[in-house]
Amino acid sequence: MKFFIKNMVCARCKMVVETAFQEAGLKVVNVELGSVQVADQDVATEQLEGLEQQLESLGFSLLTDSRLKDIESIKTCIIALVHSSNNALEQTLSVYLSNRLHKDYATLSTIFSQHEPYTIEKYFIRQKIERVKELLSYDELNLKEIAYRLNYSSVAHLSSQFKKVTGYTPSAFKKTAKDLRQNLDQL
């Protein structure tokens, strides 16, 4: 049995959600960003309600609507792509998502835009900019290295997109605006 979970964005989220499932008495087989596979077993209504309450208290929620599952799957794929060590796309984002989710991109895009205040592409850009903010705050990589790591064509392209989204240049952000980072689940 597979459950879809909203707001799972990192490895720590996976651990917390897995613990919640185990505490609810469910045998976890596999945990991925956005989903939990449990061993086939009967799940009592009280058990499911308790799990839902526990997840909500931790900032997560169970998804039952197929459209919401698709949206969460899109977000999970994008977050994983942006935060992987080598996020280079070998094809366009639309082809990548279609292949990963086994659905037509036009359908995915329509569903996403109906339920979110922005397009998939804008969500992808916002995730990349949040990753840039994170890397800038660590102060371990220069802007050229960050641009390369996040698959920007140039430092100028990264800087232009960063300023358009945040209102700051990367260097101004680094000097004065480190507190402007956002939680990934709030994008």
Mean pLDDT: 89
The global form is globular
Structural class by sheet pairing and helices: alpha+beta
Helix content: 55-70%
Gyration radius (Cα, Å) is 18 Å
- β content, as a range? 5-15%
C-alpha end-to-end distance: 29 Å
Number of E-state strands: 4
What oligomeric state do the depicted chains represent? single chain
Biggest β-sheet: strands ordered side by side in the sheet = 2-3-1-4
Major sheet description: 4 strands, antiparallel
| Low-pLDDT segments, ≥5 res | none
Q: Tally the helices.
A: 9
What pattern of helices and strands is seen along the backbone? EHEEHEHHHHHHH
Kindly summarize this structure in a few lines.
The chain is of the alpha+beta class.
Question: How does this structure look, described?
Answer:
There is one protein chain. This protein is α+β, with helices and mostly antiparallel strands and 187 residues long. It has helices at residues 11-23, 45-57, 66-83, 93-101, 105-115, 120-138, 143-149, 155-166, 170-176, and strands spanning 2-6, 28-32, 35-38, 61-63. A 4-stranded antiparallel sheet has the order 2-3-1-4, sandwiched between helices. Helix 3 crosses helix 5 (105-115), helix 3 (66-83) packs parallel to helix 6 and helix 6 packs across helix 8 (155-166). The longest helix has 19 residues, at 120-138. The mean pLDDT is 89.
